[in-house]
Fold this protein.
Amino acid sequence: MTTTGDDEADWARRIGYTRGLTSADPGERAIALAGLAAARAGVDAALTRFNEDWFRARDLGRLPQWYDEPETRRLITVHSEARRRAFPDALWGRPRGPLTDWPGLPYALGYLEWEARFPREWTLHAKKWGTKQDLIRDLAGDDHRGPVRARLVRLVIAAVSRAYRCKDREYVRVARAVDGDDLRSGLVMAVDSENPWARVHAGYVLWLLDDPDLPNSRRTWQTWCERSA
């Protein structure tokens, strides 16, 4: 599946409903969750239909020619199109290189913001740690400005302010990419807060921002925890 040829209107048509997943309004969120459930059901149904046809072809000894049949290509297309309407599948197949001009960027940010604001719903309905990791790494590799940079700063602050979730350490990459007064101010506030996790984690990020040569590794984290104890 590839999304490289899509424009903003196509993304909005396919997964515009996901914007409601981060809404503070429970009603709007419920509508978006219903849309996601329907989209995921479409993915599952398409995959089931493909698998049924594959097993039938295998049992009949037709697999070699089955892959070239028009019906097989149709089933693959139906499954691919269904995935383009659901999180997290719609975010796969990103273009290589900078994501700054990618029409899917707002939805990639929305996927990460959904986890930050409503982690339980994200975990129940669209958890994919590998997708989270890859998105963070890709986003950290670009030169973001304006509203996108501001959203990334908020994501870093949210990550250091909560109990650790899988792949959160990747946000150090983003912090280094968007380093600035606003980010450091938020990190200092977290260090001065009453949240013990935020104090340790935000301090760790500040330490790595001050020393770009320090690797963001498990050993470095353990060293920081020992220093902070």
